[in-house]
Amino acid sequence: MTKIKQIYEKKYRLLLWIPIILFVLSIAQIGYQQYTTGSFAEKDLSLKGGYFVKIPYELDQDANQYAVDLEAKLIEKLNRDVEVTTITTLGRVDAIQIETEIFDDVGTINQHIVDITGIKQEQFLSQGIVNASLGESFFKETFRAIVIAFIVMAIVVFVYFRNFGPSMAIVTAALFDIVMTMAVFNLMGYKLSTAAISAFLMLIGYSVDTDILLSTKVLKQKKSTDINENIYAAMRTGLTMTITTIGALTVAFFVANSFVIQQIMTVLLIGLTIDIMNTWIMNVSILRMYLERKK
Fold first, then answer.
1. Closest CA to 119 of 54, 51, 66
2. Of 23, 113, 164, 196, which is least surrounded by CB within 10 A?
3. Are residues 72 and 187 in the same domain?
4. Nearest 5 degrees, angle CA 9-CA 15-CA 16?
5. Is the same domain home to 31 and 173?
6. CA–CA dist 144, 170 (Å, integer)
7. 57 and 200 share one domain
8. Domain containing 80 — which CATH number?
9. 92 and 79 share a domain?
């Protein structure tokens, strides 16, 4: 433990490369996603538009395999892209959702679902059409909201600290959190939805929280002349905040009955886990170099 502590305190310039390299890899992943698909993240039905049907699931067989088989049969019948996903409530699959981008022949889609599953249309839990232009408009507006929120956050930070170095460290850490979380989100195969976008907005606040705590403890509340003591004091508070939040989000993820809530929890869990590294390695390293240069 002593050796780890020595590395953390003395080799901070070397440790700084860890988040930098991961950030570059994240940019590469998002760039590859943009190049191959035309979008930096795959969008779900709420953003790209289409037709969806939710049917009950009360079989004893493996639900995931059932979804895979149903998807393959519908693709063969409809000759178009179809996505079938399971919907879980308290650890139990109780519904299947079928989505397709094209909805000019809803009757044909419904009839094929009835023929393959044996479930009558009257038993469908829900069905509906999402307008493509409406989803695209919402995506642009919410993406603009994220950019504006990030800019306003940066302005507030610069006004409060009135110092370019520490302020830039906080803004950079928040940027790293957002970009890395998006890359992991893509790699895990998730689709960007209205719920996920709202979670990214929340993540900006969560990520900046610990960074401001750290900078305030080190720069404005100098209870000790030893920078390490100030950093560890901030770390005790910051990690307690983050870990308790992660615990609460984990419980909410497994207990929530809503897929929307689960997706919000997923984004925040990924982001807060990444924020631990960006705050207590990257931001700490930048503050150390700033104070070293100042002296």
1. 54
2. 164
3. no
4. 110
5. yes
6. 21
7. no
8. 3.30.70
9. yes
**Strand pairing category for 82-89 and 92-100:** antiparallel
Q: What is the percentage of the chain residues whose pLDDT exceeds 70?
A: 94
Of the candidates 122, 136, 133, which has an alpha carbon nearest to the alpha carbon of residue 53?
Answer: 122
Please report, as a single letter, which amino acid is at residue 125: L
- The residue from 62, 95, 130 where one domain ends is 130
The answer to whether the beta carbons of residues 275 and 173 sit under 8 Å apart is: yes
- Strand ranges (DSSP E) for the chain? 50-56, 82-89, 92-100, 126-130
Domain extent, residue 118, equals 50-130
Task: Give the span between the Cα atoms of 192 and 268, in whole angstroms.
Answer: 14
- What are the tens digits of pLDDT across the range 213-233? 888 888 876 555 678 888 898
Closest of 112, 32, 50 to residue 79, by C-alpha: 112
Residues 6+ apart with CB under 8 A from 8: 15
8 and 28 in a single domain? The answer is yes
